[in-house]
Specification:
The protein has about 140 residues and is an all-alpha fold. It is about 75% helix and about 0% strand. It contains seven helices and no strands. Helix 1 (about 1-25) runs antiparallel to helix 3 and helix 5 (about 85-90) packs antiparallel against helix 6. The relative contact order is 0.14.
């Protein structure tokens, strides 16, 4: 099971690196379409900064196995933090990433919690939290 968990962590890391590179290069316009209009920052700054963060998080998932639990919580928090962008795309009906219907954009919204759970499970962060909680309740 540990091999599956490690493979899932590496796969998520690779996906984050790929998405981060996309922010900076080939998918830049699609990511621009997701930036909430209410955000008080220049759109390009948000796209570039989030791309750099995604690359760093992806590399951390792959390379920093020693800190995987902490990285898992940070990646999960990142997925929660970018959710408003996905919601904005759905509400505005913006076509990006091949999501050209409300159904496709809604499916993406549903998938976001899966990413959060994936980060927590593949890094052992969820297991560590439950174990710590169990220890605290048995004292």
């Amino acid at each position: 099971m540990e091999f599956v968990r490690t493979f899932a962590r590496w796969l998520l890391g690779a996906a984050l690196v790929f998405a981060g590179v996309g922010h900076l290069t080939f998918a830049r316009q699609s990511f621009v379409a997701q930036v909430p209009q209410w955000l008080p920052l220049p759109v390009d700054v948000v796209v570039v900064a989030s791309g750099v963060v995604e690359i760093l998080l992806g590399l951390s998932l792959i390379l920093l196995a020693r800190y995987r639990v902490a990285v898992g919580w940070i990646v999960a928090a990142f997925f929660v933090a970018v959710f408003p962008g996905n919601l904005e795309q759905f509400v505005r009906g913006t076509d990006a990433f091949g999501l050209d219907s409300d159904i496709a954009r809604a499916v993406r919204l549903v998938f976001q919690p899966v990413l959060v759970l994936w980060a927590l499970w593949s890094t052992g962060a969820w297991r560590a939290w439950r174990s710590r909680r169990r220890r605290n309740t048995t004292r």
